[in-house]
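S., here's the first fold you wanted:
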Amino acid sequence: MMELFKKIIGDKKEYKMMMARVEALPEDYQFVFKKIQNYMWNFSAGNGMDMLRMQYELIDLFEAGAVEGRQVLEITGDDVASFADELVANARTYVAKYREDLNQSIMKRFGKK
């Protein structure tokens, strides 16, 4: 139980540090990041760690763009939803997990792997 508690506290600190990086971005970048972040949570599986990895990568990308003086839409393009879809395309989603669970349970029943 204590290990779980420590992990939760550690994850919360890590998330706060990540969001501090976001708050250091120019306002337009912050706005777009938070909108994409909110969108991404719809695709999260389990504890959301799959999305956090992608969000770190997005922050890195946005920080680099801001340093270069680029506008945020120069990075994402005008179709921000498609940009976000590309980010989550490889994420393990609830739908993928449900599909996997369904197939595994049926194959187990019939003695297949």
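And the second, which I think is the more interesting of the pair:
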Amino acid sequence: MTDYTLPFLIEFPKIGAPALGYISVAENENLPFVPKRIYWTYFTPEEVERGGHSHFDLQQILIAVSGKIEVTTELLSGKKETFVLDRPNMGLYIPKMCWRDMKYSHNAVQVCVASIEYDEKDYIREYSEFLGYGRKETN
């Protein structure tokens, strides 16, 4: 059984052959939530680190459809992990209340599948505030 409180990699089906090319499919049966929003980032300079936030309710799947993205996650428990996304059929599930930082190769294109629509009130943008929620939950 999958633990949806932890980040984990999702391998999407890879259909095709080298001579023909490939297609990968994300459908409700291989997603941990029903998508409400899809967006993509691109042309991010290599010296720029994105992310630097968490969400109260949002769950995400990040996919590097081109290039390479290094994603470091941190849970309220303090557990940190680094994931490398460099295959277009691999996604990274990020649960709610999970801090993330991302570094991109110059040619990276990231698609994000989101569980809810954009809501600025769902963001935790200050790291110290994020850490404070962990202390509140353990006391």
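Why I say that: DSSP finds one helix and twelve strands in the chain. The radius of gyration is 15 Å.

Talk tomorrow,
H.
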